[in-house]
Every structure is written in C-alpha cells, then in structure tokens.
Prior knowledge:
Layout: E1 5-11, H1 14-24, E2 27-28, E3 37-41, E4 46-52, H2 53-56, E5 75-78, H3 82-94, E6 98-99, E7 105-106, E8 110-116, E9 122-128
Helix pairs in contact: 1-3
Amino acid sequence: MATMIFVNLPVRDLTASTAFYVALGGEVNPQFSGERSSSLMFSDAIGVMLLTHDHYREFTKRPIGDARRDSQTLLAISVDSREAVDATLARAVAAGGGADPNPAQDHGFMYGRSIEDPDGYVWEIMWMDGAAFAGSP
Length: 137
C-alpha cells in the first residue's frame, strides 16, 4: 500500500467546511463521511478529514486550539498553473473562505496565494514551474 497522508481538522460547522473544501478541490469520500465527519480526497494519497469538535475530542485529550487567533500550521496544495491558483482561490472565497490572509508569493517560477477556511486554517494554493527544477537532485 502506498503512503497516504490525512490532515485531520476540528471544525465548528461541518456543512460549511465541507462546502469550502469541495471548492478548494477535494472530492467527498462518502465511505468515511457522515453526520460527524467529512472525508475529502485531493488525490489518491492526500485526504482531509473534517471532524466536529465532539468527534475530534474522541481522538485527543488536548484542548482544541483556535486557528482564527493563533497560527498552528501552514498547509499547501499545488495546482497546475498560475491561473489555477487564482481560480481555486476565487472558488474557495465563494464557498466562505477569506482571501489572502498572508501575502501573495510571486517568484516567477513559483506563485502562490493563501485562503483561510471558515475555522481559520490557512491553506497556500501554489503553482511551481517544473522546468525550473529540471536537473535538480
């Protein structure tokens, strides 16, 4: 079995958060989704699990932090072009996200913008020109 990564996030409003992550590019996996959680797949190897606070508390004894107040992590997802960065950001804003909580990054070969989800988690949407890394170790 190939290695997979699942990002598990506690959310206040499962319906609103699910809509946001679908707009960001995730596809709902109904096998692991229900009244207390939504599973969204971004690729065959990358998934985001959204869990209600009550459900999330079943997995940890630590308090749930407030991502709206404190930076906890920076998550990044790649897209196929510079234009796709802006288009993905626009879809995510329309689904309740907050555009550009961090400054946009434009380095020519790499371009990215960030979006804040309804709970305050910040995702970087980024594109890199693979040709710029051709021949890199």
